[in-house]
Predict the structure.
Amino acid sequence: HSSTIRRPDTVGLLDQPVRPYKETACISVLVNINGVDAYVLIDSGSTTNSMTPEFAHATRAPRITLTEQVTLQLGCVGSRSRINYGTRVPIDFGGLKGHVYFDQVNLDRYDCILGTPLLNRHGGVIDFFRRELHLSNGRSIPAI
């Protein structure tokens, strides 16, 4: 026996919930990148490390022209950008020192984004409850 009752597509109107800052705050940290403290988003959903062209210019980071443009696909359908340049610069934070490759990307609010390449390489674990980034070397970096 089957029902032919058609249910409405919407149940009614609803305002998006107002969430307290504690529930929406991202994990951002200060990281010394190319000798300058950068305001950095820790992003486990980003498959690249990114730096703004402005931060790269201000810190005199060498600009590497990519042989082919790379598509940067964002989380929304149809939301894309192109990556034309990158850079490789020293970083120093949480006991980690070394050169890291960054794509140069127009970012909003942050100087850089550290994504899965760095998090996987250094065992990064984002702790939203304590608002820290834990690294495999035993160090924890508090969010700002």
User: Anything to note?
Assistant: The two ends are 59 Å apart (CA to CA).
